[in-house]
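User: Here's a structure from my thesis project, written as structure tokens. My advisor, Dr. K., wants to see whether a designed sequence matches the one we expressed. Can you design one independently, without my sequence as a hint?
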């Protein structure tokens, strides 16, 4: 089995709800995607609405991976830099694979699909992302070809007394 990827899928209630459910499941499984458990889809909805608004404005694009049943199994959001001197880089955000699919190679498939998609964006020469230290995500991204280019110690406060590094990584295309 594998995921089927689609860039810029039509946004309908099923996709919206699928992304919300994925985001909640990943967060509640300990995934570092902007929330800490416990979290509900309703807690996440305002953040998804921001992503959808940015998509409608052309500032963000969505890559969705669907499993064999058509359910949302993975996502990655691309965000274009608004800074005129940095428009040759694109940011990758909210990179998620459903916990039930982890360990199957779907994360690498998602990253390969993201690299392929970004390579088709006019003028884009590199993908940038950040990840939360202490999760192993930096090792995963390094295995996908990304290089650490910066680190801000203790920039992410997961909980009182639990500060994590904000790790910046980049993949030239």
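Assistant: Designed independently from the structure alone:
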């Amino acid at each position: 089995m594998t995921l089927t990827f689609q860039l810029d899928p039509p946004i309908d209630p099923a996709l919206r709800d699928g992304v919300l459910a994925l985001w909640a499941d990943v967060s509640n499984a300990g995934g570092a995607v902007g929330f800490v458990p416990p979290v509900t889809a309703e807690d996440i909805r305002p953040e998804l609405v921001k992503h959808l608004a940015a998509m409608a404005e052309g500032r963000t694009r969505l890559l969705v991976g669907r499993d064999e049943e058509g359910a949302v199994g993975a996502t990655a959001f691309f965000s274009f830099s608004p800074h005129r001197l940095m428009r040759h880089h694109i940011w990758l955000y909210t990179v998620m694979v459903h916990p039930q699919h982890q360990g199957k190679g779907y994360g690498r498939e998602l990253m390969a699909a993201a690299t392929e998609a970004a390579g088709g964006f006019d003028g884009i020469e590199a993908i940038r992302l950040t990840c939360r230290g202490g999760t192993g995500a930096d090792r995963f991204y390094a295995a996908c070809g990304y290089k650490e280019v910066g680190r801000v110690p203790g920039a992410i406060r997961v909980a009182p007394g639990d500060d994590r590094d904000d790790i910046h990584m980049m993949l030239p295309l």
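When you compare it with your expressed construct, this may help: The longest strand covers residues 147-159.
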